[in-house]
Each structure stands twice: as C-alpha cells, then as structure tokens.
Amino acid sequence: MSKIAVVFWSGTGNTEAMANAVAEGAASKGAEVETIQAADFSATNVSGYDALAFGCPAMGSEELEEGEFQPMWDDVKPELGDKKVALFGSYDWGTGEWMDTWREDAEDAGANVVDTLIVNNEPDDEGLASCAELGAALA
C-alpha cells in the first residue's frame, strides 16, 4: 500500500474541493492518504510519502500563491527525487500558463511529474471526477 500526501493551498475553497477529490481517488485504490494544508508541510515531511499531489490555484498574473504555498514549494521540491508527483489547481482567468510554468519548475528540480490538472473556477462533477482519476493514478 502506498502512502500519499495531498498538499494544498486554497483561498476560495475550489482547490480544497479538488484536493479532497484527489485524496478520495487515491484512497479508492487502497492508498493511505493524508490531506495537508501547505502551511503544515515542509521538506522534512517528504520522505514519509511514496507519492505527493500538490494543489494551488492561479494567483495574480498566473503564479503560485506567494505567502504560504510558494515558500513551502521552494522548500520541498529539491527533496522530491523520483517520487511520483501530481500538480493541480483552479483558475479564474488566463490560459493555465501558471500550470505549465509550475510543471517546468518541478521537472527542472528533478521531480517526476506524472500529471497535471486544472479546473476553471469551482470544480463541477466532471472536474471532481478528473481529480479522483488523478489521485487514483498516484496510488
């Protein structure tokens, strides 16, 4: 059984809903899953998991949230190694460029990004199903 961390930051609840669906998808495949706020996760936690999913909405001009998520991300990304990693988040405007930039940043740091997922605004049933599939793929 794999152990998976779903680490997220959410301002409006959209990315939190996505995180919960990712966690449910992983759990449905038998994984032990922990859903963790970004402020409560650090590089020292990474070694305790077989795979990790990170969720953050697009902020400002399509960038990661700068107060809690970005510092946590900068701390953990060098520790990810070959662990499976998924990135997800919601956005309200733009084209999803923040996710392309985020994935590139993760891969440049050596992370094994298996998939990414973006949902416009609040995730609908289809979006939540996609989140569950993302979680299942990590398990």
TrEMBL record:
Domain Flavodoxin-like, first and last residues per copy: 4-139
Gene3D superfamilies listed in its UniProt record: 3.40.50.360
Domain of life according to the entry: Bacteria
Electron transport in keyword set: yes
Keyword Electron transport on entry: yes
GO MF terms, alphabetically ordered: electron transfer activity; FMN binding
Keywords associated with the record: Electron transport, Flavoprotein, FMN, Transport
Cofactor: FMN
Pfam family, one: Flavodoxin_1
SUPFAM superfamilies found in the cross-reference section: Flavoproteins
Family: Belongs to the flavodoxin family.
Reported function: Low-potential electron donor to a number of redox enzymes.
PANTHER family reported for this sequence: FLAVODOXIN 1 (PTHR42809:SF1), FLAVODOXIN 2 (PTHR42809)
Protein name, per record: Flavodoxin
Species: Collinsella ihumii
Taxonomic classification: Bacteria, Bacillati, Actinomycetota, Coriobacteriia, Coriobacteriales
